[in-house]
Amino acid sequence: MVKKLSPPKVITGGFAGIILLGTVLLMLPISSAGKEATGFLEALFTATSSVCVTGLIVVDTGTYWSSFGQLVIISLIQIGGLGFMTIATFITILSGQKIGIERRVLIQESLGQDRLSGIVAFAKRVFITAFAIEALGAVLLLFKFAPMYGMQKGLWYSIFHSISAFCNAGFDIFGNYQSLTAFRFSIWVNIIISLLIILGGLGFTVMEDLIENKKHLKRLSLHSKLVLEISAALILIGTIIFFVIEGRNPDTLGEMNFFQRLITAFFQSVSTRTAGFNTIDQAAMTESGRFMTVLLMFIGGSPGSTAGGIKTTTVAVTVLATFAYIRKTDVQAHGRRIGYSIVNKAMAIMMIAFITVLLSALVIGIENPNIQFINILYETVSAFGTVGLSTGITPSLTTLSKSILIFLMFAGRVGTLTIILAIAGREGHEHFRYPEGRVSL
Q1: I need a labelling partner for 287 at 20 to 30 A (CA). Which of 57, 92, 336, 423 fits?
Q2: 274-293 pLDDT, tens per residue?
Q3: CA distance 319 to 229
């Protein structure tokens, strides 16, 4: 009798399978602009970065890959952003097939939901909502790109960057590693891309909650309230800090006027948390600015979204638990108590992420002694947080270092806990409890 795979194993294996398929497609001569076969490591790195919606690259997306290669990349981004189970569910619905309980459990795990009832309908709404937002974003970007690049090229640019922004991928096809630097003063492009990033980073549960309770925001769930509060706080704090720190740096914001400095700082704050687009040279930032970027990348977006990082709610629960210990009260927010199982999970996620990033950065630092450690830490956190921002060191890293970044991108998208559960199997259950011991802290 064939043993059924657990949801963590299916999810981990599914993402790995899509990455391998993407790798094979990108290795084909038709995928490169020069019609030459691409090396395995370069193709694997690009496919992983695409499926894990990261944006780190070892070759320039706009000039190295052909139209077919770019189509493969944006398809991988779409699958990775929504989750392969969401795509598979929508295809199953269109084909008229029934979805069994096992598939429903997988969908629940993939979308990070706590309820099984209505999960198929929710997955369908996720797909439709994402498609509608991306389509609207593409139409709005077309007003800017069509006059600049012509209708055909402008339409392709609009579709590609709308999907890339909503999925928080950060891939661009403008060429020469320039990302959105050519549009750093364009209010239209900055606002549209920022809104797409924010919506993609909030999570579909929060978006649906907002739509249902748009006239009665007090009825929002505790999860939605925490996500919105932490997201808004991080965007505001990030904007202020970048405005102040980089405002004195002539290589980034220093030579701009007040409004230009403000919109650039705002975009950096929004994109830094997981999207990976940039309008200023990341390598030219001050060390303080890069360190602030590292902190925001580590936090990332919100659960059930297209974003990576340890998630906003993990930070919220950790902060609330700290204040609760100081006040000697339960962990609570908005009139609701947060169970210690959630607190323990938040602590575990933060600790595993911290150890994973730190050890990876140390190994890459040993492998590349000529590169500043702050830049290596920047690259490492960017990979784990599926952000994609880089100071430009990615192509020059050793093979082992690139392999570590591939693992970090995969772990950041699938989830370290999911991978650990997939490897370890089912959780153990204790049938007894040891006597309590005292430990001084």
Answers
A1: 57
A2: 888 999 999 899 999 999 99
A3: 13
Which residues have CB under 8 Å from 172's CB, separation 6+?
61, 62, 160, 161, 164, 178, 179, 180, 277
- Residue 35: C-alpha distances to residues 57, 138, 284, 325 (Å): 19, 29, 35, 61
Query: Dihedral sign, CA of 9, 13, 14, 19?
Result: positive
Beta bridge partners of 32: 65
Q: pLDDT class for 114, splitting at 50, 70, 90? A: low
- Integer-rounded Cα Rg, in Å, for the chain is 22
Give 13's contacts (C-beta < 8 A, 6+ positions apart): 5, 422
- Distance separating the N- and C-terminal Cα atoms of the chain: 50
312 touches 299 (CB < 8 A): yes
Q: Is 125 exposed, middle or buried (0-12, 13-18, 19+ CB in 10 A)?
A: middle
Q: Tell me the residue type at 111.
A: L
| Lookup: tokens for 318 | 């950790």
- Which among 134, 158, 169 is positioned nearest to 306, based on CA atoms? 169
Q: Residue 186 is encoded by which pair of tokens?
A: 């364009």
Task: Tell me the C-alpha distance between 314 and 299, whole Å.
Answer: 8
Q: How far apart are CA 357 and CA 310, in angstroms?
A: 11
3-state secondary structure of 174: coil
Task: Name residue, tokens 């928080």.
Answer: 168
- Its pTM stands at 0.88
Phi and psi (nearest 5°) for 293?
-65, -40
The upper half-sphere exposure of residue 66, i.e. CA atoms within 13 Å in the direction of its Cβ, equals 15
Which of helix, strand or coil describes residue 351? helix
pLDDT at 93: 61
Q: Show the 3-state SS of 387-438.
A: CCCCCCCHHHCCHHHHHHHHHHHHHHHHCHHHHHHHHHCCCCCCCCCCCCCC
pLDDT digits (tens, 9 = 90+) for 6-21: 666 777 777 888 899 9
Residues, the chain, total?
441
Residue that has been written with the tokens 């999207």 in this structure: 275
